[in-house]
Amino acid sequence: MEIVTSWMEEGIIQGELKLIMRQINRKIGEIAPGLLER
């Protein structure tokens, strides 16, 4: 079992979100800045 600190988890989640946003941008084009804040 691997020990993961909260800040490591936060970094992993942020990385996944960035990846998802890049994929969405590639599929449907640029996203409005208001939607990115969610």
Q: Quick summary of this structure?
A:
The chain is mostly helical and 38 residues long. The chain is 71% helix and 0% strand.
Describe the secondary structure blueprint for this structure.
Elements: H1 6-28, H2 33-36
Distance between the termini: 32 Å
Radius of gyration: 13 Å
Provide the β-strand percentage band: under 5%
**Mean pLDDT across all residues, rounded?**
81
Total strand count, please? Answer: 0
Shape: elongated
- Low-pLDDT runs: none
Largest sheet: none
* Strand/helix succession: HH
Give the fraction of residues assigned to helices.
Answer: over 70%
* Count of individual helical segments: 2
Which class of secondary structure composition applies to the elements? mainly alpha
Structural write-up:
It is a single chain. The protein has 38 residues and is mostly helical. It is 71% helix and 0% strand. It is built from two helices and no strands. It has helices spanning 6-28, 33-36. The chain is elongated and about 40 Å long. The mean pLDDT is 81.
Give short descriptive properties of this protein.
38 residues; mainly alpha; 71% helix
